[in-house]
Queue: 2 jobs
Job 1
Amino acid sequence: MTENELAREAVDIAYQIHKYLGPGLLESVYEEAFAYELTERGIPFTRQEKVKIHYKNVVLDKGFRADIIMEDKLLIELKSCEKVDNVYHKITLTYMRLKGIKLGLLINFNVNLIKEGISRKVNGLED
């Protein structure tokens, strides 16, 4: 699948989860449901994948982890918070840059309508 096809699947998954569970749960619950849906759809993914930081001649392994990466092409950062601060947008873009991924979605489930909680991110461009 292309990045855009994966993004369409991810948006549909977020919609289905939000419709069924609603807002107000822990981020880990939404991540578990997201992984379940990806498995049911047969879409390869990783969870909590380490994001390594290369600095000069060393690799800094400080425990940064991307929530979900679909087919090594789409990074999904999940939140369940009252307000998505700008720092979460920057973190998502930084993870994408460090992993060499072009497209990402920052999804906040703590909203009335899930479409209000989805932000599309493109590596190297401000969205």
Job 2
Amino acid sequence: MADTYLPADVRKRIVDVMRERKMTQRELALRIDVNESTISRFLSGKTEKLSEESVIRIARVFNVSTDFILGTTVIPDKKNYDISELGLSVEAAKNLYTGKVNNDVVNRLLENPRFATVTYMIAQYLDDTLAGGYAAQNQMYATLSSMLLGINKTSAAVQAARTANAMKVPTYQADQTTIQNTFMTVVKEIKKEAGSDLAAAKAIGKEATERMFTELTKGQDSPIPTITPEAVADAVTGSVSGMDYVNEEALQNFNQSLVDLLKTTLQQPEPQGQSDDTTE
């Protein structure tokens, strides 16, 4: 079906979609459970009567929105689907609705063309479609190996039997490897499309650090400025102090912990062998 259509009223829209789907008035009437004469009279303009239920059923037949059938939009795609139409379980829909899963990630996966392939691979993995083939193949190699060894015990026969055994594939290995590789390709493609904010985050972090350093060393002409742990901690916590939802008491506790950490990290260890007592 086309992505967009020319503006049209409900009659023209139904006729266009029927023509595209190669569906007759009789077929449409049967699909929506009305008399063929009802459809014929409406499409020919002999009557203005077309029930709301009929419009809904027509939209379902063509898998488009009712707004599209009514001519209020030129885009046929539906915006809302019933759970039963999507094939989702109640629990799956609940997880989407409550945000237990990341909806943006789910959307990106479903929009990726390869992801549909992954779902079919997983379905075959779950119902043993490919595994059954590999199991039969492995049995064939095992039988061949036994036959070779049963004929004679020559080194050539033994080697041939070993080769046959080596050709066996673990029943589920091929399934799992293919699924993993294809799924990771999907993830990489999504990551590429989404882009990366890593470079921007690094730039922002560098800028913030440089600005903090400038503030901490303001007024110091020394080539090696003095920066105390307290000053660093105050600069870090001060950048978020006063913001909404910031717990000031927790922030002060973090400030003190940061001071203690910096003091411990910057503390110079005493040289080994040195004692507080001096020897005369």
